[in-house]
Design goal:
By secondary structure, the protein is an alpha+beta fold. Helices cover 39% and strands 19% of the residues. The strands form 8 sheets. An 8-stranded mixed beta sheet has the order 5-4-8-2-1-11-14-13, with no helix packed on it. Strands 16-17-18-20-19 form a 5-stranded mixed beta sheet, covered by helices on one side. Helix 19 runs antiparallel to helix 20 and helix 22 runs parallel beside helix 25.
């Protein structure tokens, strides 16, 4: 496709692309935007928590169960061919006499089927006929019908079939490619079976409880190699196809279909003991950190669980897939990642990338126990997989790299992240049934990950880490190579604490945990002090972000507290429980002392106080921030703001509390504050109240920014959390116009261009983003060239985000032309990167919004935009333009934009955009808006 540049689009960047990199010269296949999370899942059990209102016809019959699969695949993917063929022998047992065998199939063409009975005495197979078969496209169930009823016993069903590798989605058996150093396109065949995608590679019982063992043979080009869950047993020349070999793998342990994995490529590996990392040859040098982290994390988790991984699997491989996005998948023995989630180049990638890789490796390795060794009986219990992986991703990384303090990030990145969606009235509980592939995929959400990990961490803390570990060992060994339900976990934990006086008499782990796993939402613990006698009244109710509503659920809330005279935040060994709606508790705390509940925010709930206690806490923070634990400082900021937004106390109180931040030097509280400041920035930018807000921000960040010194260099002794803090503070300093911040970033960018030397990756985003303010076209072209010639996907993403920060509309319009266009030099851009360019333009500031309005007001350009991205992306642009419209002049621009688009967008989309703007405007007349703007105005006087 060649873009019509129209009268407005300037081909600034199309003329200057370097051709020094083969990577930049070649066509790359289109891929969709990929999630940071692991991919969606699907499958079934028989202790199934069935919701009878959900269509259970998607569940397989229970009269037959699999025991072993022998799979023989043939692929020509080295030529780019999508076609593959296979033969699968499904060994299964008949539990109830039946004439039908029902398995799953999606998109495979079956050419023949034969059935054999396995003799009990000698194991010989006796032909049992050639069953007829039919596919139910709705349920994806493939049913084979025997001419006679099959009595109880063992059988083998042999199915010959063919299929096509996916290229439009990263599902099933799919095809990717890359360009090697000789300029040749090389292909990669890989798999993503979680949740219901194994059926796209071979007919199978695609439900999680229906575990079996697997023997896999793959015939492929002799120039390529194959990898799978198990080590290679043999590589033999193909007798049928010249130049081909058959790679044979040993049988797997018993496991779910979604955990089977394989890859065919020309990748190479680095190795340390029983671990390997596979990557394309021209990226293998970037795999060293992944191998090191993998070894460290596995050692740490082996010790932590006291259940050795190597008791079940002989090796553990990691594989970096090009063009796959940033996700990962925990296949037993073969963990697969998108390249940005595994490959690390210290010359190109940031501290954030390194942290992300360490945590995602630990997340996937935790799954080797939680999901692989023991998996959920049905997707209702997916939190038994993802909650543990979420939690032990941080714990495992922290154990492997204790000096990095990864655990500091857990609450702000997970607990506080889960609070948002979990405060709506439409959210689901942790345990939730689903049967259709799409509904099952929908279970892989923040509830399965962030909330579940947070709840598990709460009980880990309450029970004590040693007891929790002992209980997990019981659970893992009792359910090894099998499915589990929540009660199995509870039984293991209960066994570990029986007789230890950990919980109140007569209270069980099941009682406590069910109150959190079977009900949606979470509570706010309200603390009302009696300053005369030192008592408090504790009460609980479900927290809703938008309203107050009665809720009958009672959570068993573990609580602990610290006070001004006993500010011991480290002792988490003792908890009390609120097991009713309200209760009076003696604390003995003096009237002039603050009290703070939920030490280190280990409990998954918010805490509200009477106004006087809030004021004492704010005063204590201003006097000495370190008097209160850094995790609780972050908790106070997050709770105070969201409680105010829910009209549970005054916003003035929350904003006043934040003023202590001028003395805050820890990242975690600033991370919580960042969300608050962004909220008001988005509300007030472009309005008459913006100046007052900037005065407030200046009071918070000024001293902290001054303490940073040179923000464009990276001292050798700078810690991970110092890097996080420096980027956050310098981002705000440059955003609100600090002259020194803008001078340093502009000078650093100018020097980088003059010397043709990229800045240190750990400061690259701030330098590039804000250095572009006033940058020349030559400087902008240089930064664009850094992106387009890079072979590192994570670096390319960062540079795309930085390019969107330009303050020159012509530069941004030209960048948009790159995203839309099909210029041959730009074929290295992935579809996901093209979409990222669009979002980077409107996300960085109002200049970008106006650049999009200008460009897309031309119907010729919009037509090309639609051809490239589709209607959904155009609708998203309109929605994001509306959400960033804050004043009358901007509203007029939006209305002109909508008029220019005409029938290229639906009336519903246009009306929704106008409603968004009206909602933005109405905020200023709301109670929250009036209180907030009045506070900022008074502060600025």
């Amino acid at each position: 496709m060649v873009i019509n540049l129209g009268k407005n689009l300037v081909p600034l960047l199309l003329l200057v692309v370097s051709t020094t990199s083969v990577f930049a010269q070649q066509n790359r296949p289109a891929v969709p935007e990929w999630s940071d999370r692991e991919f969606a899942l699907v499958q079934a059990d028989d202790a199934r928590p069935r919701d009878e209102q959900i269509d259970q016809s998607y569940r397989l019959p229970t009269d037959t169960v699999p025991s072993h699969y022998t799979i023989r695949l043939h692929t020509d993917l080295h030529t780019g061919s999508r076609a593959f063929k296979g033969i699968v022998d499904i060994q299964f047992d008949v539990i109830v006499p039946t004439a039908t065998i029902t398995v799953h199939n999606r998109g495979l063409s079956v050419s023949s089927a034969s059935l054999y009975a396995k003799q009990e005495e000698d194991g010989l197979l006796v032909e049992f006929g050639f069953p007829q078969y039919e596919l139910d496209a709705r349920t994806e169930q493939l049913t084979f019908r025997s001419e006679q009823v099959l009595p109880i016993g063992s059988y083998v069903l042999t199915v010959e079939y063919s299929g096509n590798l996916e290229t439009s989605s990263n599902s099933g058996f799919f095809l990717k490619s890359y360009v090697n150093d000789e300029g040749e396109r090389r292909y990669v065949g890989t798999t993503q079976f979680e949740s219901t995608n194994a059926r796209m590679a071979f007919p199978c019982y695609d439900e999680p409880l229906l575990k079996a063992t697997y023997t896999l043979w793959i015939t492929h080009s002799g120039e390529y190699n194959a990898v799978s869950n198990m080590p290679v047993d043999a590589v033999e020349p193909s007798e049928e196809y010249e130049g081909y070999v058959t790679t044979k793998f040993g049988p797997t342990p018993k496991m779910s279909t979604y955990l089977l994995a394989f890859g065919v490529s020309d990748f190479v590996a680095i190795e340390d003991g029983q671990q390997q990392v596979y990557a394309r040859p021209n990226a293998i040098d970037e795999a060293k950190f992944a191998l090191e982290a993998g070894v460290r994390v596995l050692d740490a988790l082996n010790a932590y669980t006291d259940v050795s991984y190597y008791d079940y699997m002989p090796k553990l491989s990691q594989m970096a897939i090009p063009d796959r996005g940033g996700g990962a998948m925990e296949n037993w023995g073969l963990v697969k990642y998108g390249e940005p989630a595994l490959l690390f180049n210290p010359e190109r990638n940031t501290y954030r990338a390194r942290k992300g890789i360490a945590v995602v490796i630990a997340h996937e390795y935790a799954h080797q126990w939680f999901g692989d060794l023991v998996g959920p009986q049905w997707w209702s219990y997916i939190w038994l997989n993802e909650g543990f992986a979420n939690l032990y991703g941080y714990i495992g990384a922290d154990l492997a790299y204790p000096s990095e303090r990864y655990w500091d990030l857990y609450a702000v990145e997970n607990v506080q992240n889960a609070f948002g969606p979990d405060s709506t009235d439409t959210i689901r509980p942790m345990t939730q049934d689903a049967t259709t592939p799409s509904a099952i995929a929908g279970l892989f959400d923040t509830i399965a990950y962030d909330k579940s990990g947070s709840v598990l961490n709460m009980f880990r803390t309450v029970l004590g880490d040693d007891n929790f570990r002992a209980g997990l060992k019981v659970y893992l060994l009792n359910r090894q190579l099998d499915g589990a339900v929540a009660d199995d976990l509870y039984a293991g934990l209960q066994a570990a604490i029986d007789g230890k006086d950990v919980l109140p008499a007569g209270v069980t782990v099941k009682q406590l945990m069910d109150s959190w796993t079977t009900e949606p939402g979470y509570p706010v613990l309200t603390v009302r002090r009696n300053y005369d006698d030192g008592s408090v009244i504790l009460s609980q109710e479900r927290f809703y972000a938008e309203k107050r509503q009665q809720n009958a659920n009672i959570w068993y809330i573990p609580y602990s507290f610290a006070t001004a005279s006993n500010a011991d935040f480290e002792d988490l060994s003792a908890f009390q429980w609120l097991a009713k709606k309200a209760e009076r508790v003696e604390t003995g705390v003096a009237a002039d002392e603050w009290i703070l509940f939920n030490k280190q925010q280990t409990g998954y709930y918010r805490v509200n106080y009477d106004a006087h206690n809030w004021l004492m806490l704010a005063s204590a923070l201003r006097a000495d921030p370190e008097a209160i634990h850094r995790f609780n400082r972050a908790q106070l900021i997050n709770d105070a703001f969201h409680l105010a937004r829910a009209n549970r106390h005054d916003m003035t109180l929350a904003l006043d509390l934040l003023t202590y931040l001028s003395g805050e030097r820890e990242y975690v509280p600033w991370a919580a504050a960042n969300g608050v400041l962004n909220y008001f920035y988005n509300k007030l930018r472009g309005t008459a109240n913006y100046h007052d807000f900037i005065v407030y921000v200046d009071a918070l960040i000024g001293d902290v920014f001054d303490s940073l010194g040179d923000i464009t260099t990276v001292p050798e002794d700078e810690t991970l959390l110092q890097k996080y803090l420096k980027q956050l503070i310098s981002t705000w300093a440059c955003r609100v116009g600090y002259t020194e911040c803008l001078r340093q970033t502009a000078d650093a960018l100018h020097t980088a261009v003059e010397t043709n030397t990229p800045v240190h990756p750990d400061v690259s985003y701030v330098v590039y983003c804000y250095g572009l303010k006033g940058a020349t076209d030559d400087e902008y072209r240089w930064l664009f060239d850094q992106m387009i010639t890079s072979g590192n996907e994570a670096e390319r993403t960062l540079l795309i985000d930085a390019l969107g920060c330009a303050q020159d509309q012509s530069q941004l319009v030209s960048l948009l032309a790159v995203a839309i266009g099909g210029n041959s030099e730009l074929n290295s851009l992935l579809n996901s990167e093209r979409s990222r360019i669009v979002s980077s333009i409107y996300s960085a500031g109002r200049i970008g919004v106006e650049a999009l309005i200008e460009a897309l007001s031309d119907p010729l350009v919009t037509g090309e935009f639609l051809n490239r991205f589709g209607q959904g992306t155009l609708n998203s642009v309109v929605s994001n333009v509306a959400s960033r419209t804050n004043n009358d002049a901007e509203l007029e621009q939006l209305e002109q934009f909508l008029a220019a688009l005409g029938d290229l967008i639906s009336q519903e989309t246009a009306e929704a955009a106008v409603r968004t703007v009206k909602t933005n405007a109405a905020w200023f007349e709301s109670f929250e808006g009036v209180v907030s703007t009045t506070y900022f105005a008074n502060f600025a006087k």
